Each structure stands twice: as C-alpha cells, then as structure tokens.
Amino acid sequence: MTAPAQPPATPDLLYSRDEEDLRSAVRALLADRADAPTVIAATEADTPYDPRLWEALATGIGAAGLLVPEKLGGQGASHREAAVVLEELGRSVAPAPYLTSSVVATETLLALAGDGGPAAALLGELASGTRTAVLAVPFATPPTGAAAALATLDGTVRGIADAAAADVLLVPTDEGLYAVDATAPGAAVTPLVPLDLTRPLAALTLSGATGTLLATPEASATAVRRGLLAGAGLLASEQLGIAEWCLTETVRYTRERHQFNRPVGSFQALKHRMAQLWLEIVSARAAARNAADALATGSPDAPLAVAVAQAYCSGVAVHAAEECVQLHGGIGMTWEHPAHLYLKRAKADSIAYGSAGSHREAVAELVELPAP
Predict the structure, then answer these.
(1) How many CB atoms are closer than 10 A to CB 108?
(2) End-to-end alpha-carbon separation of the chain, Å?
(3) pLDDT, tens digit, for every residue of 170-205?
(4) What is the DSSP string of 257-311?
(5) pLDDT tens by residue, 67-99
(6) In whole angstroms, how far apart are CA 291 and each of 63, 81, 87, 225?
(7) How far apart (Å, rounded) are the C-alpha atoms in residues 73 and 76?
(8) Can you name the residues that pair with 202 across neighbouring β-strands?
(9) How far apart are CA 251 and CA 257, in angstroms?
(10) pTM, 2 dp
C-alpha cells in the first residue's frame, strides 16, 4: 500500500522579523550613501561603483555572504534575505554588483563547492566581500538558455553585466567552467554604453588567457543554469523595489503639486491610475516573494515560480516607472530628477535573464494542462 501523496507546502510570502531588521539596515545605509544626487553623480563618472558603499554593504552588513553556508565563510541565510537586499537596491537603484556577484556567481559556485576545491575557496572570498565575480554570459541569457559562452578560452562575449568591476570572471566553455582573473594576461574587458548607467555592461575578449578549471562541461551547464535561475528569481525582487519607489514617490508628489488650487492627486483620473498601479504592485510582491521562497526551500516548483515572477514583475516595474515619469510632469523628464534612473533600470531589467515573453513560454512548458 502506497502512502498518500503529501500536499505541497504553502509558500511563506510574509517577511520575518530578521528580514525586516535586515531591510532597515540596508535602507539606512543606502539612504546615507546612495541618495539620488549621489547616484546621478556616479552615473556621470567613469567608475559608477563606490567601493566604500560596497564594503559597507558586503562586509559591514554581511550581505555578500547571505547565500553562502557558514562553513564556507558566509552568513548561512537564504534567498529570502537576499531578496530583501535586492528590494532595497531596487528602491535606490544604487550601483552595486550584488545581483551579479552575490547571487548569480555565488549560486553558480555553490553548485560546485560540495567537494571543496577552488570553487569553495572562491566562495569564501566572495562571501567576505573582498572579491567580486560575474558569470561571463550576456545579461539577457534566460535560465533555459544556459549554454557555453565560448568553445575555449578564446573569443568574445558581449553584454556582461558588471564585468568591468569584477575581480573574477566565470567563463562557461565547451571544456567546462573556468575562473579567469580579470587582470590575467590575454583577458580584456571593454566597457559598453548601456541604457542603464547604474549597471554597466562590458565585453570580455579572451586571447590566450589561462584560468582555473572549476567543473566539467556537464557540471558546468548545471551550475550555470542554477545561477541564472536564482538571478532571474531574485531580479523580481529588485523590480518590486523599483515599482514601490515609483508609486510612493508619485503619490507624494501628486499630493504636493497643486493645480486649480487643489492637489493634482485628488483628480479622479490620477487616483484611478495610481490605484491600478498599487494593485499591480501587490500582485508583483506576491509573485516575487513566492519565487524567493521557492528558491530558499529548494522547491521542485522553483523554475515555475521564477518564470511566473519574471513574466509579471518586469512589466509592472516598467509600467510603474513610466507612470512615475509622466505623472511628475515636466520635472520627471529632467536629468536632475531620479525618475529616469528608475525607468532605465526597469527597461534594462525587463530583458535581463530572459524577457517576459521567454518566461511565459517557460510557464507554458512547465505547466501540465489536463487533457481535454
């Protein structure tokens, strides 16, 4: 006699006290060191990343090692806590290589660190915040499109997010996954001009470069897929943070802006638009939290939860940013106001780790529809 099937666990979409404490710490840090004028000034500089901000976030708060087990030098937390950090980074659009290094590269290495070796050693360095790493694949690569970027350590990969600021490049090839030092002979990182100036893109050109082999081709493909899945899932939390800031700032502005001797926010047409946006954000929060919880618990439904979150949250972030720019009127179109930063980040995020369309296709493949 077979045991009855156990019902699936109910996802926990609420925030724990520890998660709220982490949110408060990250928000206070970003308010102090990554306010709007600071971020705008950083986008006009050659190096948008502030090393002191990264040190405070990665080491002071310990955010860089949230996904790394304690035995490997990390905090031993989960994707839920990392999602909270990304929500706050989305709220401030702060230039920081957290998603690419502390999530995608870290998750890729975690898939290979079971037996120790160079992957485990590199994880300890990433968790401490002393080094950063990126997965050398185009930023638009979806989890289902994980594949070797090059045949060997020779060639060019374009559109790699945060490559210019990385210390280590994780390069998937037909021979396996290599860790290449960014300053190694034969490795050249060329900055590109991105739409989102707060998350720079670059091209990596390898010519006779050498690296440390971390995994065989089969293990490399599995690890890269795991890294991209975590990146896509937690990117939804960043998109949630973008949308929440846009709505909060728009509501504040329309309360203060007067026309015909009354706040413009009191006009019924604007009320309806902001109410609709609030409903979309509530749904986006549920989708993003479900994805983070599925990744944290190792749920077999994690790929589906991630695909649903990305298929929905990317559009919500873009819509919220567009409404923010438009409802701010003339000032929303100026460089001095931060609204354009959120619109550019939302637009860039909408194709990161797969477009909404590719994730909808993934949902259709993952959902088993009953026979007619």
Answers:
(1) 32
(2) 30
(3) 999 999 999 999 999 999 999 999 999 999 999 999
(4) -EETTEEGGGSHHHHHHHHHHHHHHHHHHHHHHHHHHHHHHT-TTHHHHHHHHHH
(5) 999 999 999 999 999 999 999 999 999 999 999
(6) 19, 12, 13, 16
(7) 9
(8) 160, 191
(9) 10
(10) 0.94
